[in-house]
Amino acid sequence: MAALGGPRRNEMLQALGLGPAEEVIYTALLSGPAASPEALARRTGLAEAESLSILHDLTERGLVAVATGTESAAPDPAGREDSVQLTRYRLTPPSVALAPLLVERRNALHQAETAFSLLTEQYRSSTAATAGGVVEVVVGVEQVAHRFHQLQTGAQRELLVFLVGTPTAVPRENADASERSALDRGIDFRVVAAKSYLDSHDVVRDVREAVMAGLELRMADSLPLKMVVSDRERAMVPLDTADSGGEPSAVVVHRSGLLTALVHLFEREWSHARPMYTTTTGVREEPAVDKEPTKEEIEVLALMLTGTSDRRAASRLGLSIRTVERRIRRLMDLAGAESRLQLGWHAARAGWL
Prior knowledge:
- It is a single chain.
- The protein is α+β, with helices and mostly antiparallel strands.
- 47% of the residues lie in helices and 15% in strands.
- The protein has helices spanning 9-12, 20-29, 37-44, 48-60, 94-97, 99-127, 141-153, 172-184, 201-212, 257-272, 295-305, 310-317, 321-335, 340-350, and strands spanning 64-66, 89-91, 135-139, 158-163, 188-194, 216-220, 227-230, 234-238, 249-254, 274-278, 283-285.
- The strands form two sheets. A nine-stranded mixed sheet has the order 3-9-8-7-4-5-6-10-11, with helices on both faces. A two-stranded antiparallel sheet has the order 1-2.
- Helix 11 packs across helix 12 and helix 13 (321-335) packs across helix 14.
- The longest helix is centred in the N-terminal third of the chain and has 29 residues, at 99-127.
- The radius of gyration is 27 Å and the shape is globular.
- The relative contact order is 0.08.
């Protein structure tokens, strides 16, 4: 469940439409003012014919240009200069050459988002008058797992989850991958886990990594059902497997009064559940005696009281904005405050600063 990093350098240009071999040649040209296909083949390990073909293609696309006769070639790793008789190539300034590719990708994404919105609205309109427009039944391990991942990877703002019992359709390691993806995107991810769910050492270890990556976790003695709610637009709840011949099955609930009730159920359980915090080996419930803020929380509180925004506080303290928000929320829980103004008043009265 550990957070993943950003794109690696050798994948950045692929996001703009260059193939892997094209990116190798393009990156190699960054190391010198100009180079021949022969020199680039030596540097990259590609065949000279392949290097020449790629250079021709990049030239046609305006990313590379033929070097003028007065330009000197950069030496290859062996220290030899390119022969002046060989045609040499140089990069077109990236700020000029790559800008159209970026615009093209942005336009394609905008078109995809527009199509997504139109198709979603059309589907809702065509099914609004039927039960299928509100509740969809999914049967079978593969289908249940597929819809579960759709809900998690498709979330844009928020995920609300109840964790109960042993996973059936979605193995723990597969759920971890979806959770990492959501946390990497900065999704507001809140989880209430039943106490029995956290009994497994392996589960606790994985959950600890997710909490450290920004997931907010609370524990309840028991929960009525498993559930995942995505953006308060749709939810998934397992059905009794006895009704489907032993196969895992679930219902996907779309926007409706039923979905609103499921969200209210989550918020009620969340408000009564006990916050969990990381230890060196797992997670723990806050002991009853641990009612004083930590040094790290006081640092966040001090910046908050000076009017510093959460984002700026995160930057100054070298934290993620989710960690800053989580520490402020815990301070509010300790103070019994419903607003940051009340938190400031309680902090002054309690002598926290």
